[in-house]
Amino acid sequence: MKKMTNILLIIMCVVAVAFSGGAFIKANAAAKAIEQKSGNVTIAGQPVDLTVAAEKALPAVVHIKYVQNSKTRTVEVQDPFSDFFDPFGFFGNPGGQGGTRKQQVQTPKKEASGSGVIISADGYIVTNNHVVEGADQLTVTLNDNREFSARIIGLDKTTDLALIKIDGKNLPTITIGDSDKLKVGEWVLAVGNPFNLNNTVTAGIVSAKARSLGANGVESFIQTDAAINAGNSGGALVNTNGELVGINAMLYSQTGSYSGYGFAIPTTIMNKVVDDLKKYGTVQRAVLDIQGSDARKYIDAQKDQGKEVDLGTNEGIYVAKVNPDGAGADAGLEEGDVITSIDGKKVTKMAELQEILASKRPGDKISITYLHNKKSVTKNVTLKNTKGNTNVVKEADLDVLGANFREVTAEQKSQLGINYGLEVIKVNSGAIKEAAIPKGFIIQKANNQPIKSIDDLQEAVKAASTDGEPVLFIKGIHPSGKSDYYTVKLEQ
Q1: What is the chain's alpha carbon radius of gyration, rounded to the nearest angstrom?
Q2: Alpha carbon 451 to chain centroid distance?
Q3: Cα distance between residue 221 and residue 211, in whole Å
Q4: Which residues touch 406 (CB under 8 Å, ≥6 apart)?
Q5: Are β-strands 244-252 and 261-266 bridged in parallel, bridged antiparallel, or unpaired?
């Protein structure tokens, strides 16, 4: 009996070994199949190999040095002698009224650094708007230590993206991937120059997609736990194949240094912004002209107030307000509706809707599905721009004003008690004439921004021309000393 028991135990052990061996072979084969499918060279059971991705990405990621020169600016400061009558303005406060006086200050020279990604062999580089905006000098250093001066092609504050250009040929580039195909849990690399430590690579996974932080006007961030620090901004987020899937933009931290999460702008948004900046100099932004929030957030907010809400779904975009002249109204959207999909693609968060619209232009047609009184409705609609039409929006030049200008002279400053301004020295046909601004009038502010030079006026015109209401509100002074205001319409 004992002998029989021993024989049975031996047989059972052999069978168990056979089954475990078969399971091991199947598991190994499955792992190899996964590795072959992903295109990665790995050892079964070991972390994914990211060396190939790093080798592909590093040559195309650059270091950007930002310099803003010292400037003289006029500021208003509290005047301790505001009650002292000073008819001749010796203390900068004629008559002793207002409690403030104007004072010239010298701003310090500013230097900073960031990263960028070469996307074309002839030198186009994508980076963040906050990395290059306001720069007087931009110096780009390549991975092989070659240096180039760069110029700004276009900026977009709404997405925090910028396009700059260096003069070069056969420069290393990166393959642009599809950020839509990224999956949560997928490995990614963040490549950049944190703390001026050039050519730095950090690894992590995609922690979330379509994340909104309220930092930009349009955002649908890729969230990653790959370390992103100061100086990484504008650098590359790449997948395991070394393809660009995002532009590193910011970190979430209470200390100012990396503490777990970084955020990148997806290539679905980047591609459209870059193309528009090349073609038009400004982004052609398509809007539905609605206000709203995630349906889940709206429901939770109502519950906090003791209200029960049944929208027919817990997922989608709750519509809180509809502009009667916008594309949303054309689609039949009303307050209380819930948008559930665009072009057949499910949307559950406002960030997802923004990402889809960010890839469209005014004039593009989309299919929008929404719940109205809990019933599903699908409508086709033509998207419009912020001005309510489908025209191409271009940054206006000073030519639209139809006038000539010059900075005020020292004599004019003394006579009129001013510190800066642009004198209208000639009025031709254009917006200045239509606004009835006379020759000799001195412009001091446009849309509340000080106008001290022709460049200042140019920037004000550009900014206003792409706004929903292309208007300049001009404040200034006549040669007689009388202050005056004018409204200048930029749209012809």
Answers
A1: 30
A2: 27
A3: 5
A4: 422, 423, 425
A5: antiparallel
Q: Mind listing the pLDDT tens digit for each residue in 382-441?
A: 999 988 888 887 777 788 899 999 999 999 999 999 999 999 999 998 899 999 999 999
Q: Cite the active site residues.
A: 130, 160, 233
Q: pTM (2 decimals)?
A: 0.74
| Contact between 117 and 247 (Cβ < 8 Å) | yes
Q: Is the dihedral of CA 215, 216, 219, 221 positive or negative?
A: negative
Sign of the C-alpha dihedral computed for residues 382, 385, 387 and 391 taken in this order: negative
Residue type, 199: N
Provide the residue type at 92 as one letter. Answer: G
* Alpha-carbon 454 to chain mean position: 27
Would you list the DSSP string of 223-279? EE-S---TT-TT-EEE-TTS-EEEEEEEEE-SSSS-SSEEEEEEHHHHHHHHHHHHH
CA distance 355 to 349: 10
DSSP string, 167-229: --SS-----B--GGG--TT-EEEEEE-GGG--SEEEEEEEEEEEE--SSSSS--EEEE-S---
Q: Kindly list the distances between the CA atom of residue 67 and the CA atoms of 80, 141, 195, in Å, as whole numbers in the listed order.
A: 36, 14, 16
| 120-155 tens-digit pLDDT | 999 999 999 999 999 999 999 999 999 999 999 999
Token reading at 98? 């207002």
Neighbours of 324 (CB within 10 A): 8
Sign of CA dihedral 86, 92, 98, 100: negative
